[in-house]
Amino acid sequence: MHEDPHAVFGWLAARGPVHRVRVPVFDKECWLVVGHAEARAALLDDRLRNDIRHSADWTDDGGYAVGHNMLQSDPPQHTRLRRLVSAEFTARRVAAMRPRVRQLVDELLDALPATGPADLVESLALPLPMAVICELMGVPESDRADFRSWSSEVVAPTSAEAAGAAAGALSGYFAELIARRRAEGGEDLLSALVRSNTADAAAEERLSDEELLGMAFLLLVAGHETTVNLIGGGLLELLRRPAQLAALRADAGLLENAVEEMLRHVSPVQTSSFRFAAEPVTVAGREIPAGASVLVGLAAAARAASVAPRPDEFDVRRPPEQSRAHLAFGHGAHFCLGAPLARLETAIALGSLLERRPRVRLDPDRPVTWRPSAIMLRGPATLPVRFD
Ligand code: HEM
């Protein structure tokens, strides 16, 4: 799983569209849907709920360590929470961020050494999405290193205990940041959300303390822990295939499709978040009992030959209807809110890197290493390159 999850997903998919599995690190038993059609259907199935209170394992509010957020809620709460922030992430609002994203990428590329060695995760894939979401939310630069280490432990846990401690630290950090915004005010998104957390806010715009914490947590963590894996993992696939790299360098018109192919091939969020069966649900002839936990295998579904022939091949010239047939951003009501932003950041990072460092290549002397992963997220921890 760690070295080559697609081989495992492929092996499972060849044996059926749905399986009972045990999730590593948390040692949790659940159902994993790996068929493409079944995955799409599961993401639209309103009997499979996001609210953990539908889980048979749910006993207390342990699942709320970092507040209750839109990804862990169902309508009508989900609808209200999503509506509060969706205007910030529309394609138009995100297009307006282009100059700032380009400037950030330029600054990061300026700081790279002339010939290498360099690590493209540390110098580009990580700091870019981190800076973008922290600026949007108003996280000061001095806090970002701490924030980064807690966040990383929460989404790529080294143990259940360490993840719990990091969630506690993050929760404390957000509470403090929120208190600062409440006292000082500000123009960032977090300050706007703090203004919704008052008795004067209209009912449909009101955020409880717990929801405010959950929103800050979700946006900040989802805003960078995912995109780092797309930029890092996608660049790795390209750098492994010099002919693909050359095709892209020769035709910048392929850039957008290359990002989709990266999403399809890498699928950096490998599974959905947990769904919980509110009643028994039959998927492909197998009955998932009420209270069971379900993961939708987004990475597995993306490699279905039924939607993209030769699914394991990475090809930036694939017809767009194939490269876009992935479920990398999910599907249905919880479809990724940040998809336009993630696409923009990745396209600019990739385009600028190839333009300014056309000789970029993998460093033959230093291996790529991978982040620890409990199954949901996957991406390289280091991506060593040279530019000579
Ligand atoms: C390559 C980058 C990204 C990938 C692959 C990705 C993937 C996903 C996926 C698969 C979901 C749905 C999960 C589920 O249904 O269980 C999701 C939801 C979400 N994503 Fe992203 N994401 C990315 C970047 C971002 C960014 C930059 C943001 C910025 C704020 C963001 C914010 C969110 C939010 C708020 C949700 C929850 C939406 C809801 O519950 O309605 N994501 N993302």
Automatic annotation (TrEMBL):
The name this protein goes by in its record: Cytochrome P450
UniProt keyword terms in alphabetical order: Heme, Iron, Metal-binding, Monooxygenase, Oxidoreductase
Cited Pfam families: p450 (PF00067)
Keyword Metal-binding: yes
Organism: Streptomyces alkaliterrae
UniProt KW Amino-acid biosynthesis keyword: no
Family listed: Belongs to the cytochrome P450 family.
Lineage: Bacteria, Bacillati, Actinomycetota, Actinomycetes, Kitasatosporales
GO MF annotation terms: heme binding; iron ion binding; monooxygenase activity; oxidoreductase activity, acting on paired donors, with incorporation or reduction of molecular oxygen
